[in-house]
Design a protein that fits this description.
2 domains; 354 residues; 10 strands; Rossmann fold; five-stranded parallel sheet
């Protein structure tokens, strides 16, 4: 009698091993996901970043969901990849137009569309002045100071704003030393360290079906997408001379020169084609910047084309542990700007009456 053949059964042990390996991986991923969800929830966010021309924008005409332990917010972008309604470039007759420029605080990370200080300023000014007001939100998370002037020339100038509302947070001062290399938060060609390769790999995953769903619901993927890449960049930046405490004065002077170049280029002090600038300064950013403070005081005293509005942001105005402004914070900023502009308008009317 012929011995029994082993064909058809030779791969069974290997199949069993592979099945066991797959089950172990799935269980491991599930346990990690359950642990993160219960004890360390991450920042879940729709994949919507698009790097271009040295600036990080969001995908145009997109609804972006952003959820973590601090907030659950939805952001809506327009055809330019900016937040809020898309107004026509040509300013309608009789409209007072403001363009807001700044980082994630201006964009409104952590609050819904109607809760951003841009939308609130628009609503409050229209009610107070009884005239059409448009506030265009050009806030971009992670925008660097050296991108302000190019953005103005490429886009903002065409909107012919009556006022440019600028918030350059001083906690980004460590990036002032990398101005010559481009934006630290910018495109692949200017990013630092191995984060470039990681982000390229993550972007390729966008083509995978279900990737957007996982970004909005998987804490494990969020840990890879939003924390690992950020930590790599932070570690690389920490090794640069820009982050050393002894370079504080040099960084302040670099920041001042960069900001002054921007103000000189766009301010109405340089001619009729310029615009008025109102800079928001958060007085609770952690430490004094004596060189910058002296410069801003001198510049603000020169005339009406550049003014500084100090904001005393209290802890209850931010998401404690996360840092961005909560709805109360945006309300406070909007009220402060409206009150300041109202006082300026009243002073101008009084001066003209004389």
């Amino acid at each position: 009698m012929a011995p029994p053949t082993r064909s058809g059964t030779s791969f069974r042990p290997l199949l069993v091993e592979l099945t066991g390996l797959v089950v172990a991986v799935v269980l491991g991923v599930a346990l990690a996901e359950a642990y993160l969800t219960a004890y360390n929830p991450q920042n879940l966010m729709t994949p919507a970043y698009e790097d271009g021309e040295g600036m990080r924008l969001y995908t145009p005409d997109t609804v972006i969901k952003n959820r973590n332990r601090y907030f659950d917010a939805v952001y809506t972008t327009n055809a330019l990849g900016l937040r809020g309604p898309l107004y026509p470039t040509a300013k309608p007759k009789g409209v007072y137009r403001i363009v807001a420029l700044g980082p994630s605080f201006t964009f409104g990370i952590g609050v819904d569309d109607a809760q951003t200080y841009c939308r609130l300023i628009e609503k409050k000014l229209q009610a107070a002045w009884r005239r059409p007001v448009q506030v265009i939100n050009m806030g971009q998370p992670g925008i660097s100071m050296n991108n302000y002037e190019p953005l103005y020339r490429r886009l903002i100038k065409d909107y012919d704003p009556d006022l440019l509302l600028v918030y350059p947070p001083l906690w980004t001062l460590n990036e002032a030393d990398v101005v010559k290399r481009g934006s630290f938060y910018g495109t692949d060609r200017t990013e630092i360290g191995s984060a470039v390769r990681l982000r390229r790999w993550l972007r390729k995953l966008r083509r995978v079906p279900g990737y957007a769903f996982l970004c909005e619901h998987s804490n494990l993927l969020a840990l890879l997408r939003l924390r690992v890449a950020t930590n790599i960049d932070a570690d690389a930046l920490a090794r640069t001379p820009a982050s050393r405490p002894e370079n504080g004065e040099r960084l302040e002077r670099t920041w001042t020169r960069t900001f002054e170049s921007f103000v000189d280029a766009v301010s109405c002090a340089k001619g009729a084609a310029g615009t008025r600038i109102l800079m928001l300064r958060n007085t609770a950013e952690g430490r004094d910047f004596h060189i910058i403070d002296r410069y801003l005081s001198r510049r603000s005293a020169r005339g009406r084309c550049f003014k500084v509005l100090d904001l005393a942001m209290r802890p209850e105005y931010t998401y404690v542990g996360e840092g961005h402004w909560n709805p109360r914070g945006h309300e406070f900023v909007a009220d402060s700007v409206v009150a300041f502009l109202g006082a300026q308008k009243a002073a101008a009317a009084l001066a003209s009456a004389r």
